[in-house]
Amino acid sequence: MSDRSTKERILDAAEGLMLEKSFHSVGLTEILEAVKVPKGSFYHHFKSKEQFGVEMLKHYVADATAYKKEMLLSPTPEPDPLRRLLSFCEGTICRVMETKGKCPCLVLKLAAEVTDMSEAMREVLAAGNRDAIAILEQVLQEGIEKKKIAKSVQPAEAAGIIHDLWNGAMQRSAICRDAAPPREALKFIRELLTP
């Protein structure tokens, strides 16, 4: 098995474990048992738990960003940018229901926990937020150009507000163990954007 596939397996396993628990509550032994690799394999790829956290978040954010681009910026199969955005949000609500209200996003799950303890991890999360907002801005701009989104919407400003509204709704959903907050946020987003 190649080094890359071992590293990827460690990162993938850790993401799943940390979505269930937290960064601090998941120990090295638990991660290694999940992927059936010795401790030396971990330290071959990662110098410390913090550096591991940075790599794990980069891995997760890269995958999440690629998924958002695929779902929100590709005009196939849905040429209407507003429908693409609303469908994307509806898909997230489905994941919330599948997890019984638990947060399905590692960025949201770990943000409050790691940003004060690691500047490097905070920087990865900040870059992920900037990328997510930039993708939303592109969708909104496309929607305005295609007359599918209200022309009064200012894409740069609205993208940040929608991003923050959605993340807040997802956090409240995790606290309440209820999909109502993102449903309410989606209704607001739909009303805000519909021409």
Short description:
It is built from nine helices and no strands. The chain is mainly alpha-helical.
> Major sheet: size, sense and barrel closure?
none
* C-alpha Rg (nearest Å): 18 Å
In which range does the helix fraction lie? Answer: over 70%
Distance between the termini: 54 Å
| Total of helices | 9
CATH class of the largest domain: Mainly Alpha
How is this structure best described in words?
The protein has helices spanning 3-20, 28-35, 39-45, 49-73, 81-98, 106-114, 119-145, 155-176, 180-193. It is mainly α. The chain folds into two domains: 1-45, Homeodomain-like (Arc Repressor Mutant, subunit A), CATH 1.10.10; 48-193, Tetracycline Repressor, domain 2 (Orthogonal Bundle). Helix 4 (49-73) runs parallel beside helix 7. The chain is elongated. The relative contact order is 0.12.
What tags apply to this protein structure?
195 residues; 76% helix; Tetracycline Repressor, domain 2; Arc Repressor Mutant, subunit A
Write the layout of secondary structure elements.
Elements: H1 3-20, H2 28-35, H3 39-45, H4 49-73, H5 81-98, H6 106-114, H7 119-145, H8 155-176, H9 180-193
